[in-house]
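Practice problem 4.
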């Protein structure tokens, strides 16, 4: 007789493992199946985010920032350093240890919550059955009352730049360079391309990003994107817009062929990162007779509660519509767990924060000015530069700004956009404010500690009504 569980989760990334833990907290018997194997050949929970995405990239971003600070800015504080050496293998080893500690933490959480961990491939069968194929061993069929599909996403590959795992790599390969490439090309100037480009630029690479779109960071508020572009260019990142890659020729160097408004162009690089986006990992996720409904792009079709077309089968995270963000997937996992347990789980998709972990960071929540104007929504806005705050100046982090957008009639906050130091942390205040339907005046009347970076948010809210104190209105 097949083993039976209240819930089987296929995928142990941020959507899957969080959903599994919440199910267990609610008294349900849970099994989690995941096939990810680390570069050491060991099964590891955490999905792309923890193993080859969010966490390792942030570890390298921090390392590269430390190196850059020693070389470029410590002297302004009166700290003089000589003989600085860069040890890339040690940097990569530290990154790997951070990942190992985090994945081990998830295993401990599974154990503490009495969750059954199954390393291997999971496939949805008809009738809420799941075929589990271990990495070594024969397949077995499991039975579930409910199934949560959370298999995440994978990098999109392009025919013009086929990966070779050495010189032409995807975002995962960009985390494994053992030395700093003298010349680095990046196809795609989106979130992943900018983050990876920033790491190696700070470590000494000459980085060129080739972006097919004519607009830099189109989803970002145009004022913020313009400021970010200026700061990245000042740092040495070269971003070429409207550049469509047509092919790559391998020789002693890599020759990247692309076309822009001026015609055919070439770029010589030593390494090339392909970062043109991600697609859902739904290949071999379900048997044909399971009749799971996918759309034309491979996403699992779900309703607003992440219920698929099959009763008792849910899908969360990168395999469904919406932004491919770890925290969005986690909240969907919690929502589904609570629904399975008879509660009323909920995700507010209008207040999901976005972050790009470059330096300066970019973060936002809600709508952009350009999208609101296109929709005919009457708005008013205020901005404030970090350079006018004492804390930012003391930190030598005076670039960037905060922008608050409110409804012109109701004053309700519709969007907050930040480019600058610690934007990833500052945006949380805006998320909370919008979740409670705050007005720009609410934010303006809240006392913010002095001196802090958060004062820029305060002053931007004041600026909506031309009441900012530390700038001319």
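Answer key:
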């Amino acid at each position: 007789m097949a083993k039976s569980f209240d819930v089987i989760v296929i995928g142990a990334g941020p959507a899957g493992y969080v959903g599994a833990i919440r199910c267990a907290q609610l008294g349900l018997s849970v099994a989690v199946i995941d096939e990810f194997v680390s570069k050491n050949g060991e099964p590891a929970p955490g999905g792309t985010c923890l193993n080859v995405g969010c966490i390792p990239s942030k570890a390298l971003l921090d390392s590269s920032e430390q190196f850059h600070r020693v070389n470029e800015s410590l002297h302004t504080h009166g700290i003089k350093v000589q003989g600085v050496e860069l040890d890339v293998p040690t940097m990569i080893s530290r990154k790997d240890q951070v990942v190992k500690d985090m994945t081990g933490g998830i295993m401990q959480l599974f154990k503490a919550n009495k969750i059954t961990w199954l390393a291997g491939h999971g496939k949805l069968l008809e009738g809420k059955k799941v075929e589990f194929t271990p990495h070594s061993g024969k397949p077995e069929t499991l039975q579930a009352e409910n199934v949560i599909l959370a298999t995440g996403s994978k990098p999109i590959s392009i025919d013009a730049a086929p990966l070779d795992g050495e010189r032409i790599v995807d975002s995962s390969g960009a985390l494994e360079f053992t030395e700093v490439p003298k010349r680095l090309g990046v196809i795609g100037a989106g979130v992943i391309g900018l983050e990876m480009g920033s790491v190696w630029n700070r470590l000494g690479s000459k980085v060129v990003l080739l972006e097919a779109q004519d607009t830099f960071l189109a989803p970002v508020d145009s004022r913020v994107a313009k400021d970010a572009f200026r700061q990245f260019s000042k740092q040495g990142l070269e971003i070429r817009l409207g550049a469509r890659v047509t092919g790559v020729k391998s020789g002693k160097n890599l020759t990247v062929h692309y076309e822009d408004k001026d015609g055919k162009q070439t770029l010589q690089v030593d390494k090339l990162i392909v970062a043109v986006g991600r697609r859902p990992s739904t290949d071999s996720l379900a048997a044909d007779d399971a009749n799971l409904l996918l759309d034309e792009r491979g996403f699992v079709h779900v309703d607003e509660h992440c219920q698929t077309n099959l009763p008792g089968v849910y899908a969360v995270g990168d395999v469904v519509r919406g932004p491919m963000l770890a925290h969005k997937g986690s909240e969907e996992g919690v929502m589904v767990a609570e629904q399975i347990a008879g509660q009323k789980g909920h995700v507010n998709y209008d207040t999901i924060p976005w972050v790009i972990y470059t330096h300066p960071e970019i973060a936002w929540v809600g709508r952009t000015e350009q999208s609101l104007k296109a929709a005919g929504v009457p708005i008013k806005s205020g901005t404030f530069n970090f350079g006018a705050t004492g804390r930012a100046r003391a930190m030598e982090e005076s670039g960037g700004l905060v922008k608050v957008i409110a409804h012109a009639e109701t004053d309700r906050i519709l969007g907050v956009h930040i480019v600058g130091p610690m934007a990833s942390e500052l945006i949380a205040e805006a998320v909370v404010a919008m979740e409670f339907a705050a007005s720009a005046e609410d934010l303006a009347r809240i006392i913010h500690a002095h001196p802090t970076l958060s004062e820029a948010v305060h002053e931007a809210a004041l600026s909506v009504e031309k009441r900012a104190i530390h700038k001319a209105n």
